[in-house]
Amino acid sequence: MKRFKLLLLFAGLTLLLNCSKDEDSQPQVEQETDKSANLLATGDSAHDLLANTNFSNLLIEIGYVEGFQPSTTTMANFEDFLRDRTFKENITVQYLELPSPGKETLTLQEIADLETENRTAYNEGNTLAVYIYFADAPADGDDEEQNLVTLGSVYRNTSMVIYERTVRAIANRSALITISDVEEAVLSHEFGHLFGLVNLGSPMVALHEDAASTNHCDVAGCLMQAEIEFGGGLMGILESRALAGKGAAVPSLDAACLADLQANGGR
Ligand SMILES: [Zn+2]
Ligand SMILES: [Zn+2]
Q1: 23 Cα: distance to centroid of ligand 1 (angstroms)
Q2: Is the pLDDT of residue 221 over 60?
Q3: Dihedral in degrees, nearest 10, Cα atoms 239, 4, 252, 212
Q4: 2-13+37-263 fold
Q5: In Å, how far are 106, 126, 155 from 48, measured between CA atoms?
Q6: Which-ligand-closest: CA of 198?
Q7: What angle do CA 228, 190, 19 make, to 5 degrees?
Q8: 195 pLDDT exceeds 50?
């Protein structure tokens, strides 16, 4: 959450900069894209992502470093997840191939800066836009020896990063789990945060926030458990599900999380 707060500060600064620019009395030749609605805090667009009150269309822009695109299987399953949870009538995915930023690790601040440079999809009319960056470098602060590696993060209301190099590295260590399983679990978990889970914009119907981990669910087996964000935890969950012969390796949302989404306009 410390990083999240830093990013909030960053988002605030960006807004300030934009405001001072607007105060210039010079008439602008070209209308600049209004990005303000996409520079809010994580969870602020939970209702807008779930319900059709303000937006009936969802546009997902996948910005991926060359060679780090998610698989078509992953994206098909992820789109099903979005259709199952929201009332959006049209869900479109567009891809943006990007050069490597050439970093050994990435801080959330650097990821937010890259988004500012590269993102092309912003809210327009009744289309709500989300940007997902597939990075070719691990998160700053990963501890590989302890297997405490971060697989994904959200940092604003419509922004998220998947650490694709790390996702592939941990998936390749297991004979039971595919890259697609890991991609799907992380994408869905992080999108759960954009949906306002847990207690992050979608109020809790019943108390189920993990006392040890803010904005995560305390129900065993739920997609919103904190462990899913980290390599060791996620692989443990996926492998035990695979060994138990569960239909899908990727866990789904439990009843408490589903109730929160339904109460905030979702399915
Ligand atoms: Zn999480
Ligand atoms: Zn849950």
Answers
A1: 38
A2: yes
A3: 70
A4: Collagenase (Catalytic Domain) (3.40.390)
A5: 29, 10, 17
A6: 2
A7: 145
A8: yes
CB neighbours of 1 closer than 8 A, spacing ≥ 6? 214, 215
Q: What does pTM read for this prediction?
A: 0.88
The residue extents of the domains of the chain are 2-13+37-263
Give residue 48 CA to ligand 1 midpoint distance, Å: 20
| Contact assessment for residue 211 and residue 65, using Cβ atoms and an 8 Å cutoff | no
Residue 134 forms beta bridges with which residues? 64, 162
Residue that the structure tokens 């995560």 belong to? 216
CA distances, 98 to each of 67, 93, 136, 227 (Å): 9, 16, 10, 30
Nearest ligand to the C-alpha atom of residue 215: 1
Q: Which amino acid is at 238?
A: L
Place of tokens 């597939």: 134
User: Between 14 and 220, where is the model more confident?
Assistant: 220
